[in-house]
Amino acid sequence: MYEPTGRGTWFKWSALNRAERILLATSLTCIGVGTACLTQLMDAGGPFYDLGFRLGSGGMAPPETRSALLSPVVDRWLTLLTVLLFAVAAVLWSLFSARQDELFNRVQNRSYGLGSFITLAALALWLAGERIGWLPSPTAGWVLLDWLVICTAVWMVDARRLWQ
Amino acid sequence: MAVITAVLAARTDQRLTQAQLAEAVGVSRQTINSIETGRFEPSLELALKLARHFDQPVETLFTLHEEG
């Protein structure tokens, strides 16, 4: 059974049984690798690439005329892998959640609900900003990443409030 | 209205630890702690499990307190 520590900000690995450990570790691994793939897809030639280029080249700016860094084939397979990793992570996480108690699920459901609401509100603002030309178009990758970050933040706040 | 809980008193009467009570009703120790300190109001199912464990009516473990 999931037992939080640090007022809900972390958990006791020793309190989980074998099946829960496998489900949690595999799910978190899939989320981590999936997020790495997602950021790779989102930033092929983008601002983080620029930053990495400058750091690696002692401040030299990347060439202006660079083309897409990922070939279409790599892009397609990386997209497929990313979707697959997130799908597997979601299924394993739901199996893990089903084994936990109601306080865990209440915190989790609240973080999904409030996290989704905040993400939608942010997306509405983003789209408004795009229409008046202040912001670039939102992409599915950024929305998914925002949702993950906001849900995690809501979890942390709720966990600190409810768990000791 | 606030829910007042007597779970802590019932547990100490039976000389149980939070971990023992948690295992008996199938929740984590922190959930028992959160119920006892009033941070978390359990579902009807968990409230009934606790009442059955202590062999008490559920309304003696959880009472409504009208404020003001």
From TrEMBL, chain A:
Keyword annotations: Membrane, Transmembrane, Transmembrane helix
Transmembrane keyword on record: yes
Domain of life: Bacteria
Transmembrane segments: 21-42, 77-98, 110-128, 140-157
Protein name: DUF998 domain-containing protein
Record organism: Sphingomonas jejuensis
From TrEMBL, chain B:
Coiled coil ranges: none
Protein keywords: DNA-binding
CDD domains, alphabetized: HTH_XRE (cd00093)
Pfam families xrefs: HTH_3 (PF01381)
InterPro entries, A to Z: Cro/C1-type_HTH, Lambda_DNA-bd_dom_sf
Domain HTH cro/C1-type: 7-61
Presence of the UniProt keyword DNA-binding in the record: yes
Keyword hit for DNA-binding: yes
Highest rank taxon of the organism: Bacteria
SMART domains given in the database record: HTH_XRE
PROSITE patterns in UniProt: HTH_CROC1 (PS50943)
Name by which UniProt lists this protein: Transcriptional regulator
